[in-house]
Amino acid sequence: MRLAATVLGTALALAGPVSLAQAAPLDNEPLATFTANARTNTAAPAAWAAGTRAYLVITAPGDTTAVRTAVADNGGSVFASYDAIGVIVAHSTSASFAATMRGVAGVQKVGATRTSDVPADAYNPALPANPAQATAPTTEPVRSDMTQIKADQAWAVNPGSSTVKVGILDTGVDDQHQDLAPNFNAADSVSCAYGKTDTRVGAWRDVDQHGTHVAGTVAAAKNGKGAIGVAPGVKISSVRIAEPGSTLFYAENTICGLVWAGDHGFKVTNNSYYTDPWQFNCPNDLDQAAILEGVGRAQAYAESKGSLQVAAAGNSNVDLANKTTDTSSPNDSTPVTRTLTNDCLDIPAELPGVVTVAANGTSGTSKASFSNYGSNVIEVSAPGESVYSTAPGGKYATLSGTSMASPHVAGVAALLASANPAYTPADIRAKLGEQATDLACPADARCTGTTAKNSFFGEGRVDALKAVGGSTPPAGAYFENLTDYAIADNSTVESPITVSGVTGNAPATLKVGVDIKHTYIGDLKVDLVAPDGTVYTLHNHTGSGTDNILQTYTVNASAEVANGVWKLRVNDNASQDTGKIDAWNLTF
């Protein structure tokens, strides 16, 4: 089930067997061989045949050679192997494969990941389309979802560090989008569709629109075009785990994505989906027990490497702490009605260590009608209704779902990591809750707990301003210049801001936000020039070997009349490295 979405003013009825946290939405180069990451051992796959099914074969982490040999000896082929966590992705057309492998020495669990065949595309994947880009908007209004979590105030303090990488595990991302391209990290982007890494250029692109929308909420650039993300200074990488056509997220795809996140230094990942085909995986089912084990190991591995996973709670309006029945699974064949216990988990949202996110309604203080809830399941909440963000082809869309709430939290987590580089995943997870704005239960008997922590909102709505060290809104008026000014070798360039309507002098704590893109900031001297010509030095040839200046400075400008033309002056004092003033701002 998908919620309705509005794209550029057009209502879209979105239907189909997708698992995008049940959220709102949701080619053609041959592949000779997949490229595997350093922790993935792969063998040449067998030729595709009708009836091919995928399985997780679970063994002890480390050397999986013996079990991989057993797969081949018992009617299967090894499609991918994640030795660090002891998970093998096997394919077989034999109906007895799982039962046979469960009797092999060293095998701990075996389970089918699907109730339908593996598509032929798995053996020769088509590249997603690279859509033509629409004309960029000329406005960039601050949206209500951003003001609710005080992201607009956080930007003036710290918009996020370009050293922080956020992984978007989703349907893919349109890296050409004008609001995403400035922050897109192609080097660490990949497709994990079908459970094996595909590092071809563009394999990470969107096969729907969901992932592009999520990416924009996390880190759309603050560039005067369209939308701004929660953390517009961080880097985003696309890890496409949805398969084309079905847009389903099978367990092997999720495992591949989480291992990739751990191995590629993602500080945060966003996971706005549940692992198909089962909305809830139950440990008393042999197939689902293997899925729980495999995905659980992958999440623990990513966390051990420093990656925090943030996940959508789902859109069924059910109490995750009191599960009863499931009528929507499996969603890749014919759903059945089955009885659930609380041991049956929505994954990755309910895995240990994952931040589980509920959605607030448009008021910011209510639960969105569709959002799942649950005492001691929901960690925090964030805006998830009518969220405006990026869509493929340079477009924009308004979508609703816990899928839209989760990337707000991932963005705040990225800001926490930016402000506190030494924080571990556990540190960030704790701070998200500690700094959240408490929300009281509405007049709804389903909401249990206290204002400080309850089943609808967890510890409350996340706070971006507190994440970057702010406790109160910046005082006074805010002015910015988003026009690019090129910085040539051995030259001086100035970017002006005209301040008006401010009474008296500037404050002793004038905030100067600077965003300079330059390949060697040791060449640079950066000054703030007051309207009367007084010069305040902000940066003076420090940071040799470092790219870019993305920082907020505090200047005692109390001797200066506030109104007038202020300038950011940049002197480049050497050859070979150039750049631009991307943007800068003043907060009085």
Automatic annotation (TrEMBL):
Family, as annotated: Belongs to the peptidase S8 family.
GO biological process terms on file:
proteolysis
Protein name (record): Peptidase S8
> Which of UniProt's keywords are assigned here?
Hydrolase, Protease, Serine protease, Signal
Q: Which GO terms describe its molecular function?
A: serine-type endopeptidase activity
Q: What species is this protein from? A: Streptomyces vietnamensis
Q: Is Signal a UniProt keyword of this protein?
A: yes
Superkingdom classification of source? Bacteria
Q: Which residues form the signal peptide?
A: 1-23
Tell me one Pfam family matched here.
P_proprotein
Q: Sorted alphabetically, which InterPro entries does this protein's record hold?
A: Galactose-bd-like_sf, P_dom, Peptidase_S8/S53_dom, Peptidase_S8/S53_dom_sf, Peptidase_S8_Asp-AS, Peptidase_S8_His-AS, Peptidase_S8_Ser-AS, Peptidase_S8_subtilisin-like
